[in-house]
Specification:
CATH architecture: Roll
Radius of gyration: 15 Å
Largest sheet: 5 strands, mixed
Oligomer: single chain
CATH topology: Sulfate adenylyltransferase
Pfam families: ASCH
Shape: globular
Strand content: 25-35%
Strand order of the largest sheet: 1-3-4-5-2
Protein name: ASCH domain-containing protein
Helix content: 25-40%
InterPro entries: ASCH_domain, DUF984, PUA-like_sf
Order of helices and strands: EHEHEEHHHE
Structural class: alpha+beta
CATH superfamily: Sulfate adenylyltransferase
Organism: Streptomyces maoxianensis
Number of domains: 1
Length: about 140
């Protein structure tokens, strides 16, 4: 960690048990993909990250625990997410339907709706998502 340029933080979920679970899955190699809402990027006025971007994976305590490098970034309709992507999220989903139910629960939660500024936010098959694939390049 010494003498390196600061990296943009890579945040999975919100601090707490879910983030801890996701970070552990990344560190174990089970999680090599993630999905976010394009609306999140728009609400935060952020550009999509480019392939090759390196970021610091952050745990619930705000510590950098690893460096990840993006290997793929795709924007697609929620209805187009396939089984490979769902399995590669490393959260134990056995089907796209299970994956989607878990993600809809998160995206329809109070924290996400507040972040988007839309208390009634809901997703459907046409909702645009950002599917990212990554690899761990360094652990701290």
């Amino acid at each position: 960690m010494e003498n390196r340029e600061p990296l943009k933080p890579y945040l999975l979920a919100y601090p707490g048990p879910l983030r801890d679970q996701l970070v552990a899955a990344v560190l174990s190699g089970q999680k090599v993909s993630t999905t976010g809402l394009l609306a999140e990027y728009e609400a935060e006025k952020e550009e999509l990250p480019p392939v090759g971007e390196r970021s610091a994976l952050i745990d619930s305590d705000g510590r950098e625990v690893a460096v990840i490098e993006l290997t793929e970034v795709r924007v697609l309709r929620l209805g187009e997410v396939d089984l490979r992507h769902a399995l590669d999220e490393g959260e134990g989903y056995a089907s796209v339907a299970e994956w989607r139910a878990g993600h809809e629960a998160f995206w329809h939660g109070d924290e996400m709706r507040e972040a988007l500024g839309d208390p009634g936010f809901e997703v459907d098959d046409e909702t645009l998502v950002v599917a990212e694939r990554f690899r761990v390049t360094e652990r701290f």
